[in-house]
Design brief:
By secondary structure, the protein is α+β, with helices and mostly antiparallel strands. 30% of the residues lie in helices and 19% in strands. It is built from 3 helices and 4 strands. A two-stranded antiparallel sheet has the order 1-2. Strand 3 and strand 4 form a beta hairpin.
Amino acid sequence: MLTRAVVEVRAPSRVEDIRVTLPVEDESEAKVAKVRRKILEVEFLDHLAANCSAEVVEFVRWALAQTDDVAAGISLKWGEGGPLLRASGKMCNRKVT
């Protein structure tokens, strides 16, 4: 059985800022096929700007820009919920996501 949980972490992060919910799908929602797609960088940053401080957005922009430097050993892959940053190579002995 697969259970979907939504974990929200608001910045700045404290234990009180973390909320976990288990969404309940009604029967009509379950019958509708959901179309999933990768989120675009501009969409992600717009959503982030609407929900976080300018400092957080600038940090994320900086982190995403670091993936352009192949020597840094950070790769970027876009998914449905946002970016997946993976460190490898010189930064550590194994891949870290």
